Amino acid sequence: MTLIRNPLFLTTPNDPHNHYNPYLLLHAFTPTAFFNAKPMLYRADLLDTIVFRHGLPRLLGGRMSEALRKELRSALNKVSQAFDGLGDFTTFSALSLATIFKKPSTGTMIPICFRVGVQSVPVVAITGMFIGMVMAIQVFSQFQSLGMATQIGQIINVSVIKELGPVLAATMLAGRIGSSMAAELATMRVTEQVDALICLGVNPLHYLVLPRVLACVLLIPILTVLANFMGVFGGSMVCTEIFKVDPYHYWQNSRGHIQIWDLSVGLIKPIFFGAAIALISCHRGMNSRAGAEGVGKAATSAFVWSFMSILVLDFFLALFFNNLHQAIWPDNSIKTFGPK
Fold first, then answer.
1. Is residue 25 over pLDDT 60?
2. Residue 55: per-residue pLDDT
3. What's the rounded Cα separation, in Å, for the pair 156 and 231?
4. Under the phi-then-psi rule, with left for phi > 0, alpha for psi from -120 to 50, and beta for the rest, what region is 210?
5. What SS3 string covers 189-258?
6. 112-166 per-position pLDDT tens digit
7. Which comes out higher in pLDDT, residue 67 or 339?
8. What is the pLDDT of residue 57?
9. Which of 29, 64, 173, 233 is a good FRET partner for 50, with 20 to 30 A between their CA atoms?
10. What is the pTM of this model?
11. Burial 231-259, CB ≥16 within 10 A → b, else e
């Protein structure tokens, strides 16, 4: 069987001084290359034969219109492309994270950390403050109607630290950092700077992708702490200055309702959010199409997929930590909320 031919080597394979092309090696193990390597087994002709000539016509009594055939073929192509993209992203992420054992370049790491961390402080601080302020405005009337206005700090602090702060801060950073990373790498890809690195024997995944992943994983949790602090501060300012809640009772009733577990959950989630933002953005940038339109689509798709991944990860992480909390402290919820 003839396998697909991929230019994995910059020189001849028998040359003892050859250097593998890591980015082309990446595509050699994608589903597209795997499917092309076995044309008699995975090509669309086989799908067409099985689905459109034997499967569906029998179910439909031997009658199948050309319009229905065209729509079904288009749907199958979209499903195939979705799995192809998922496999490509999985391979890209695995090969990128595999370079973590080699120290990244300091000259590359420091500027990226500055852009991800320092330059994002104003955006994250403003976002966090308004999260708490809006939260206070929305829930104050309900608490006041129940005669529990001084208890409002509990729900604000827990909501901001466990959910709203990490998710919305990561969303803002996905729009600011993720789109920038995708556009930058897409431009480098279009202008053949990535190819130049490969020709120089530099692994582009280690030189370009790994520093961005590390910067997001390390700095987004710190930025989330800032967002949480500003959210708690903004909520307290609205309650005490606008709604005239007594500051002493507000903070006194808020004490003891934020546990170490809540703080830990609020700090672990941003680690996964940061990794998802960096990997998705770098993947979209490194696989962009040529031209200005390709760069724009890479930036847009980076934000869209990063935002969706944040929501999906938040759901599964919340479910995981909730089950873990119940497994470790099975009677904690009963002691806290049950009858005394």
1. no
2. 52
3. 8
4. alpha
5. HHCCHHHHHHHCCCCHHHHHHHHHHHHHHHHHHHHHHHHHHHHHHHHHHHHHHHCCCCHHHHHHHHCCCC
6. 999 999 999 999 999 999 999 999 998 888 888 888 888 888 888 888 998 899 9
7. 67
8. 54
9. 29
10. 0.76
11. bbbbbbebbbeebebeeeebeebbeeebe
Indicate the helix (H) or strand (E) that contains 128.
helix 121-145
* Positive or negative: CA dihedral 246, 258, 158, 276: positive
Give the residue carrying structure tokens 């770098």.
282
Q: Which two tokens stand for residue 18?
A: 């050859």
- Which residue carries 């998802």 as its tokens? 276
Residue 161 CB burial class (10 angstroms; 0-12, 13-18, ≥19): buried
The span from the CA of 101 to the CA of 25, in Å, is 19
How many CA within 13 A on the CB side of residue 279?
Answer: 21
Q: Which residues contact 213 (CB under 8 A, 6 or more apart)?
A: 96, 97, 275, 278, 279, 282
